[in-house]
């Protein structure tokens, strides 16, 4: 784990090199500066060590037996559990093509042999500083997700709702051909879309009967509150339109801004449609769960009233009838 002293940042560094003398040299240089160092003789062992310990940075020799540094780097960056760990490739090769390969597999920086102590420490500290900021961002995001799930947890009838929406909306987004940035936003939005309900009293949030006009006024502010809560995080920039606009309607009769048609962000249109589908197909205090056929028929009628985007509903209907959304639901229930 990264640590700050009055002088500099420290942390845990994994060094992988097939030459013992190189490992010992790097370990000595880094340990002398206060870093905790773990060593591995090849790429396979390095990946095993990453499963065992929480490293803050990885130094990989490019040419190693069993698995090269390039291959190990590619696996580190492909793993959701480790892809944010900075990787420095160390090589005696100066060929431009080798560095291009390193960039392609996700390397964050390069060092050439013989390793210069000053350059090594400068690059290590620079990347660890960036890693520390990334860790802070992850902790902030984790707090928001925890808060959103705590709101969901108040109502036993909405158990699993956030995870289902994250899975449903990502699956539908893929089916629509949305770019990966929007798919990520949909996954996050599925969890935090109703985070603004933290400002709604439980007496309203959990009321089993129809809300009064005054209570509806309080309920309708939750998208604005949710946007305000999440807006300080730059990583949530693509999620904010989902949070604010997932209660808009295609005919302009929704809230909070009364947006109409394609002026409603497409990610919000995707999430609102799966939100309705999930509400219909799960049991609530005021109704039994609808069958898929009945839920789709109800939604088709609502599309006819002008509430939902007909093109997006058509894609959702196709996925639902194929059983793809049911697979997403089971994945959510299993925690994936």
Q: So what's the CATH class of the largest domain?
A: Mainly Alpha
Overall tally of domains: 2
Number of E-state strands:
7
Measured by DSSP, the beta-strand proportion falls in: 5-15%
Total helices: the number is: 15
Note poorly predicted spans.
332-336
Biggest beta-sheet profile: 5 strands, parallel
- Following the backbone from N to C, one meets helices and strands in this order, namely EEEHEHEHEHEHHHHHHHHHHH
Architecture overview:
36% of the residues are buried. Residues 332-336 have low confidence and may be disordered. The chain has 2 domains: 3-135, Rossmann fold (3-Layer(aba) Sandwich); 154-333, Hypothetical protein af1432. The chain starts with a strand and ends with a helix. The chain has 15 helices and 7 strands. Helix 4 (96-104) links the parallel strand 6 (87-91) and strand 7. The radius of gyration is 25 Å and the shape is elongated. With 336 residues, the protein is of the alpha/beta class. The longest helix is centred in the middle third of the chain and has 37 residues, at 117-153. It has helices at residues 20-32, 43-52, 69-78, 96-104, 117-153, 161-176, 180-192, 202-205, 213-219, 222-230, 240-245, 266-281, 292-304, 310-322, 324-333; strands at 3-4, 9-10, 12-16, 36-40, 57-61, 87-91, 109-112. Helices cover 55% and strands 8% of the residues. The strands form 2 sheets. It has a 5-stranded parallel sheet, with helices on both faces.
């Amino acid at each position: 784990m990264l640590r700050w002293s009055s002088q500099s940042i420290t942390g845990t560094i994994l060094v992988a090199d097939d030459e013992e003398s190189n490992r010992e040299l790097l370990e000595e240089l880094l340990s002398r500066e206060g870093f905790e160092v773990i060593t591995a003789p090849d790429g396979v062992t390095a990946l095993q060590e990453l499963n065992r310990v929480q490293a803050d940075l990885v130094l990989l020799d490019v040419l190693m037996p069993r698995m090269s540094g390039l291959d190990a780097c590619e696996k580190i960056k492909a793993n959701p559990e480790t892809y944010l760990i900075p990787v420095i490739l160390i090589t005696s090769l100066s060929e431009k093509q080798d560095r291009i390969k390193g960039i392609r597999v996700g390397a964050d920086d390069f060092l050439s042999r013989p390793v210069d102590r000053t350059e090594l420490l400068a690059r290590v500290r620079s990347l660890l500083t960036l890693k520390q900021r990334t860790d802070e961002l992850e902790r902030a995001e984790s707090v928001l997700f925890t808060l959103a799930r705590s709101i969901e947890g108040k109502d036993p009838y909405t158990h699993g709702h956030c995870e289902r929406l994250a899975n449903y909306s990502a699956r539908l987004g893929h089916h629509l051909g949305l770019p990966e940035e929007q798919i990520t936003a949909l996954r996050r939005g599925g969890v935090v879309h109703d985070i603004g309900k933290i400002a709604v009293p439980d007496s309203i949030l959990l009321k089993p009967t129809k809300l009064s006009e005054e209570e509806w006024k309080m309920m309708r502010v939750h998208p604005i509150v949710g946007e305000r809560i999440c807006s300080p995080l730059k990583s949530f920039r693509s999620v904010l339109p989902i949070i604010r606009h997932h209660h808009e309607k295609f005919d302009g009769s929704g809230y909070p801004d009364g947006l109409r048609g394609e002026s409603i962000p497409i990610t919000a249109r995707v999430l609102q449609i799966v939100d309705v589908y999930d509400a219909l197909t799960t049991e609530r205090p005021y109704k039994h769960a609808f069958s898929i056929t009945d839920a789709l028929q109800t939604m088709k009628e609502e599309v006819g009233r002008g509430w939902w985007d007909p093109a997006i509903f058509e894609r959702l209907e196709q996925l639902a009838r194929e059983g793809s959304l049911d697979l997403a639901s089971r994945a959510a229930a299993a925690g994936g």
